[in-house]
Specification:
Number of domains: 3
Number of strands: 26
Bound molecules: glycyl-adenosine-5'-phosphate
CATH superfamily of the largest domain: Bira Bifunctional Protein, Domain 2
Radius of gyration: 26 Å
Number of helices: 12
CATH architecture of the largest domain: 2-Layer Sandwich
CATH class of the largest domain: Alpha Beta
Strand content: 25-35%
Low-confidence stretches: none
Largest sheet: 7 strands, mixed
Shape: globular
Structural class: alpha+beta
């Protein structure tokens, strides 16, 4: 399949089927913003729930927080974001469009006769095609600024560019209220904002997005084993949400490219149609944050080492996963095209655990009250397994299947006259259709319930 077209197909399906829409579209949109529709919200919530299960609930030493987006600006001074959370910015001299300096295409500079000038380069404006002399870029801070309070000189505050800071702000609260045994971790899922110079590639680079982050606090000499532990959990999560092993690659980030706080970072890269790019990150943040906050706030953030009875500042391992990039990688991994009964079809082979709808129930004909009543009864029974059992009686059965295929619903259940006893030996059985193969089988409602339950475990 042509890879550019694949991206267009995903964007089109996401819109057509109510997963993801451009933000404020009737006013022409707003760059770097997308809204999630009913099935997008469900998919996103399922991805977040599964993350919470695998990164928090399945560990006895993990604690959750939900911190504010607006924080005291000292947080960002101390974390280094006010001075250092920048991208290099350049402006086209002709059309004045602005670009990230590390994203533009450069070419050798030529003189008027067309001879290449050794060691000199120009960059080509993506918007108007003008060739610009390369210059030192300006450093552009990516934090969104706003004001807290009603007075004219209300103080400047920032929308958080990462959720991690809210975790560091609650480190002492967790110790004082929960008294966790050391080592332990704190997790948070929430919005983050970055004024990206060039938001692009659908929901890959956004200005408003969500993160799922863990800060795991350790003794300095435990960093390597803890790094490996979370690295393994990240791979398990990738498998659980349907990302193929072949599409996920680890990149050891070289020192010059690492964030200012990191002593080691692995980027988990995904093969997107627009190239191999970052999906998630795993970083060893050392004691950078706690030491800096302790120094600036004057509040002690050290731990007592029970063995040596000496105090130390905990170091941190941080698995950081963007929710929206996870949604994108999940949709790309699940997208399939095939033929069923000679007709082309599209379906999303989503694992049941993250599928927005776990099964759809429908009566063969919607104008037969006895079929509708029985189908409602079956649906109610199946909703005891999971509430996300949809009802669809619109159009013919083939159309209903196609619709559910595109949403990624693993099972469709049809109630027909045999269910009502037209063929006595089939009474109380229903047709279960499998999304990926289109195959159908005849089962009792209880057997279907078991199938759905098993698919979710
Ligand atoms: N606390 C560490 C941190 O924020 P990061 O690599 O800057 O590290 C972590 O971001 C993750 O957040 C990325 O791996 C990506 O999944 C997601 N992310 C970062 N910037 C994003 C953007 N502009 N749009 C969508 N997701 C983004």
């Amino acid at each position: 399949m042509n890879e550019i077209t694949l991206m267009e197909k995903i964007i089109s399906l996401a819109k057509r089927r109510g997963f993801i829409f451009p933000g404020s579209e009737i006013y022409g949109g707003l760059a770097g913003t997308y809204d999630y529709g009913p099935f997008g919200v469900a998919l996103k919530n399922n991805l977040k729930d599964l993350w919470w299960r695998m990164f928090v609930d399945e560990h006895d030493d993990m604690y959750g927080v939900d911190a504010t987006i607006l924080m005291n600006p000292k947080v960002w001074e101390t974390s280094g974001h006010i001075s250092g959370f920048t991208d290099p910015l350049i402006e086209c001299e002709k059309c004045k469009h602005r670009f990230r300096a590390d994203h533009v295409q450069t070419k050798p500079k030529k003189d008027e006769e067309g001879n290449i000038l050794k060691g000199e380069e120009v960059w080509v404006c993506e918007h108007c095609g003008a060739k610009n002399d390369t210059k030192d870029p300006q450093q552009f801070n990516m934090m969104f600024k706003t004001h807290a309070g009603a007075s004219e000189d209300a103080s400047t505050v920032y929308l958080r560019p990462e959720t991690a800071a809210g975790i560091f702000m609650n480190y002492k609260n967790i110790i004082d209220s929960i008294h966790p045994k050391f080592p332990f971790g704190i997790a948070q899922i929430g919005k983050a904002f970055r004024n990206e110079i060039a938001p692009r590639d659908f929901i890959f680079r956004l200005r408003e997005f969500e993160q799922m982050e863990v800060e795991y606090f350790i003794k300095p000499d435990e960093w390597e084993q803890t790094f490996e532990k979370w690295r393994a959990v990240m791979h398990q999560y990738a498998r659980a949400i349907g990302i193929q092993k072949n599409d996920l690659h680890e990149l050891e980030v070289p020192p010059d490219d690492r964030a200012h706080y990191s002593q080691r970072t692995i980027d988990f890269e995904f093969d997107y149609p627009f190239g191999r790019k970052e999906l998630w990150g795993l970083a060893y943040r050392t004691d950078f944050d706690l030491s800096a906050h302790e120094k600036e706030s004057g509040v002690e953030l050290k731990q007592l080492d029970e063995a040596t009875k000496e105090k130390f500042t905990p170091h941190v391992i941080e698995p950081s996963l963007g929710v929206d990039r996870t949604v994108l990688a999940t949709l790309l991994s699940a997208y399939r095209q095939d033929e069923v009964g000679g007709d082309a079809r599209i379906y999303l082979a989503l694992p049941s655990v993250i599928a927005p709808i776990k099964a759809m129930v429908s009566p063969l004909l919607k104008n037969k009250p006895e079929l509708v009543a029985k189908a409602k009864e079956v649906r109610k029974e199946l909703q005891k397994v999971h509430p996300a059992i949809a009802w669809d009686d619109n159009g013919n059965i083939g159309k209903r299947y196609r619709r559910q295929d595109e949403i990624g619903t693993p099972y469709c259940i049809t109630i027909d006259f045999d269910t009502l006893g037209e063929k006595p030996e089939l009474k109380d059985t229903v047709t279960l259709r499998h999304r990926d193969t289109g195959e159908q089988e005849r089962l009792t409602t209880q057997e279907v319930a078991t199938r759905i339950r098993e698919s979710l475990s």
